[in-house]
Prior knowledge:
CATH superfamily of the largest domain: Response regulator
Radius of gyration: 25 Å
Number of strands: 12
Number of domains: 3
CATH architecture of the largest domain: 3-Layer(aba) Sandwich
Largest sheet: 6 strands, parallel
Helix content: 40-55%
CATH class of the largest domain: Alpha Beta
Strand order of the largest sheet: 2-1-3-4-5-11
Strand content: 15-25%
Order of helices and strands: HHHHEHEHEHHEEHEHEHEHEHEHEE
Shape: elongated
Structural class: alpha/beta
Amino acid sequence: MRANIKDVAKEAGVSITTVSRVINNNYPVKKETREKIEEVIKRLSYKPNEVARSLILKKSSVIEVIVPGITNLFFPTIVEAIEGVLKKNGYSIFLSNTAGDSTFEKKLINEALSKQVDGIIIMDPSLENMENGYFASVSANIPFVIVNGAPYDNNCNYVSYNEETGTKEALTYLYELGHRNIVLLRGTNSYSYDIKEALYLSFMKEKNITVKILKVGGGNSIEVVEKATKAAQKLLNSDKEITAFFACNDLMAHGVLNAASRLNKKIPDDLSLISCDNTILASISKPKFTSIDMDMANVGDVASRELLNIIRDEIVDKKNVLLETKLLIRESCKDINGGKNGEI
């Protein structure tokens, strides 16, 4: 049977309060008494109840990390970087997946608050909970960092990747290769997708090019690959003018790759393709995707360090950290005026 604090106190011949003081190190205890208690703890293999301990100290050493999906490698890569930094600083993480559901997202945060976690990092959250002021209220009560394509307001701390630079660079690259029939492939219910769409619309209007937007449900689950495949295949069958796709993540880009294969089209010979995020999927696909690199490891590193600074009261005012992105040229684009593989 597992030893409890009463067993330790009885064996050491001290009160439960004294054992608690040694465990929590919150009150002075005589050296010889402390050593005796520590010896008993070791001998009985006693492990404190961390939930009860956190209630006493009001500190759990746990950070809640919330993502909209775990099959989109963009998020696990950032989580891995976050965990690496936090672990070195004495924290563990609890990972939750909203599946893009704003109501469930709110439920997860409320549960995290009830568990008295020391902080929360949420990635690409729902627009609904940003618009209704919920995140602002959370940020006022607990160290809270939002990882997103752009800051929504000044009432939360953000670590943002520069959507504007990467998206404009990608669209300009396709334009310079001669493409005038470019489809934006996006998921639903994401502020990040909304930002990319707004930038796409602005670019197409500036160049006086017809807008072609293809929306598929979700965006961050493995199911989106097949959804994107079917949607892109249907569109390519009905619109023979299309020469390029700009996909909002690597999963959707793989859907385009599959659709092209089913229609006996080759990328980049018959269809150019640019993806976003530059997960490992972009570099192991055939052909390798030209992709907007978000430097995911750096995003996670910065987000975790910003949260630690808030916890330590080193950040008082709300802050937005903007990280740069870049377009990595690989094999999935072609100059339709005669060049190949993106060589202009």
